[in-house]
Amino acid sequence: MSTPVPDATRQRFHGATLAAMLVVGGASLAIAALTLSTLVGIFLPGSSVAHAVSMTGAGESAREMTGGVAPLGPLPAVPVPADNPASPAKTELGRLLFFDPRLSGDASTSCASCHIAQHGWSHFDPLAPGYPGHRLWRNNPTVLNAAHFDRLMWDGTIDRLEVQARSAMQAPVEGNGKADIVEMRLRLVPEYVDRFRDVFGTEWPQLEDVWRAIAAFERTIVSDPQRVPFDRFAAGDLRALTPAARRGYALFTGKAGCIACHYGPLASDQQYHALGVPRQPLFDSSPLVQIAVRWQNAQRDAPRALYRDADEDLGRWYQTRDPADIGRFRTPSLRELRYTAPYMHNGVFATLAEVVEFFDRGGGDGPNKSPLLRPLGLNVGEKSDLVAFLESLSMDEPLVMATPSLPPMLPLVILPDPVRGMHARPDRPAHLVLDQSSGTEATDIDTDPDATAGDSTRTAADSDSAPTRIRYNRYTRQVQRQ
Ligand code: HEC
Ligand code: HEC
Question: Fewer beta carbons under 10 A from the terminal one: N or C of the chain?
């Protein structure tokens, strides 16, 4: 299941090397910052057409602008793993499943319950809601553009969307879906049986294919560069950014130093840093959150002694077990922030202005804090320019999607098998038995009303009693006895 995605299909930015370049020597950073501010000084304040063109021109000059790291810019095509090729039918099936709460234990919770399209495919609560009776311990990251990340989750513990979908729906605090039960449910939805057969060629829906279909759908949930002001600007439409956003861009790549970690098309180095983000007050006030934090730590084998009885989120440490990774979290993408508030792994900041204040202070306190953070000395105007720039990385309107109407389950009825003239096995849904054989719009079946289900020796033909006529329409899925 966790076959690694072939490198060739992923468009990496060699984040590790580039980040190392910046992280290793304060000196090289200082030089980069110097180069940046010089360039920014030259190109931006005048913001004449000629200057802006040279700023967004060939990749090389953009790379110079960002001190050697991959520049911000439109996202490339979504990487698709070789073992789960995309097709329109698979994406459509994945869309239905993404919205289908029957994947969860009590059929209450779908992916869309937490990843709400109107809220940037994330959730407006600081900490995500959980399965009924639970609360989660982290802020909901967006599904938008998640397909572009090499590793998923705030701590990078999952490496592909297929695995993520399974864990979301089966984790007790999230979907709490029992594999066998959920699979059986899907098998009693005739439309799903047809769709899974079309897409995956299996007789019955298989749970592993559920995660493949959902992942294929998620790979279509990406920012549209035509609708992102910054992407239009980068493509040459100089009026796409307001003067404030342009000034903010100059600060981002220059004085504020954000580009050291937020670079490339995602505006993320895909690395892990500790910023000393303040503690989420719900960790101290909400019993449900405290249960979630302790449960997550127990699941991940965190030693109780570590960090006040493991009531902290240790971040990247869960993956590496390296004390130097305690408190580090994956640099998030800065795309679509207009719709994905609140912010940070624990949702502690409600607005982008609060985030900028935090960075202006030089971050917070905590173990392993990144040496890249330092007080910035931004004035009020510069702070709002930076926010204007961050907002320009979001689409003009959120990518909304209506909740689809979901195909119904149909009860298991026992009908004869028209092919062999025998009775259908009681453990097989009749609509499926008939479906395989008919191929026509409707099937007429003669049957013996006295026959016992499962009796394969008696057929309609050798029965003495008057046959009942059953008409089955495979499109309306109506069964009528006459
Ligand atoms: C109960 C709320 C909830 C449900 C239901 C839920 N998610 Fe999530 N999702 C989260 C939270 C919280 C995280 C971050 C968890 C972490 O970092 O440990 C997350 C993370 C993700 C990520 C990783 C994003 C990134 O940038 O790394 C993806 C993708 C995702 N979810 C997709 C799904 C899919 C698909 C489903 C349904 C199969 C689903 N989620 C169901 C709350 C939920
Ligand atoms: C040392 C690397 C680093 C630098 C420099 C940096 N960031 Fe970040 N940024 C991160 C990481 C890591 C997180 C997530 C931290 C967490 O949740 O604990 C983050 C979170 C954010 C978020 C929240 C996004 C979300 O979806 O929750 C925003 C907005 C942001 N940064 C903007 C900026 C701006 C603006 C600057 C410059 C003033 C900047 N960052 C500088 C690494 C960095």
Answer: C
Strands 468-473 and 442-447, sheet pairing: antiparallel
Domain ranges of the chain: 7-75+225-276+327-391, 88-218, 413-481
Could you tell me the distance, in angstroms and rounded to a whole number, from the CA of residue 380 to the centre of ligand 2?
19
pLDDT digit string (tens) for 169-223?
Answer: 999 999 999 999 999 999 999 999 999 999 999 999 999 999 999 999 999 999 9
The CATH number assigned to the domain with range 7-75+225-276+327-391 reads 1.10.760.10
User: From the CA of 141, how far away is ligand 1's center (Å)?
Assistant: 7
Cα 234 to Cα 237: distance, rounded to the nearest angstrom: 7
> Cα separations (Å) of 364 from 232, 341, 372, 448?
35, 20, 12, 78
3-state secondary structure at position 50: helix
CB of residue 138 inside a 6 A radius of ligand 2: no
Which pLDDT tens digit goes with each residue over 411-454? 876 555 555 544 444 444 444 444 333 333 333 333 333 333 33
Ligand 1 centroid–CA 116 distance in Å is 11
